[in-house]
Amino acid sequence: MSQITYSFNPETPLLTWTREAGTPVSMTANHGYINAGAPLTTFVMPTVAAVGTVIAIIGEGAGLFQITQNAGQNIQYGRLSSTVGVGGSVKASHRYDTIHLICRVENITFAVTSAVGVFNIL
Question: Which among 6, 20, 41, 64 has most CB atoms closer than 10 A?
Fold first, then answer.
């Protein structure tokens, strides 16, 4: 069994944050996004993500946001799981919905560890 060690330096943020209004947005590891788009913003999961990689999205834009996947990927939200591969997605239902994901299987499986709002899991 492998072990992951986290260290925290209060002077260094855990995530780098950016505001996004364009679409699609190719997400990167250990990054947070604030969705500022008026139309629907599509966030694409990173193709490379180590176990423990964190991704977060804060909704703000009136057009909502959705997270799409690459081949072989899926997102698990409690007892629900998105369809594996490019057909799977997670979509916000309100402009201020927020979601926090952590990679639990390298490059493939992401778990929702925190969410505010109701998400449509496809």
Answer: 41
CA–CA dist 70, 88 (Å, integer): 9
Locate 27 and state its tokens. 């997400």
What pLDDT is attached to residue 106? 98
Binned at pLDDT 50, 70 and 90, residue 22 comes out as confident
Tokens of 63: 């057009």
Q: Measured between alpha carbons, how far is residue 72 from residues 3, 16, 35 in Å? A: 24, 26, 25
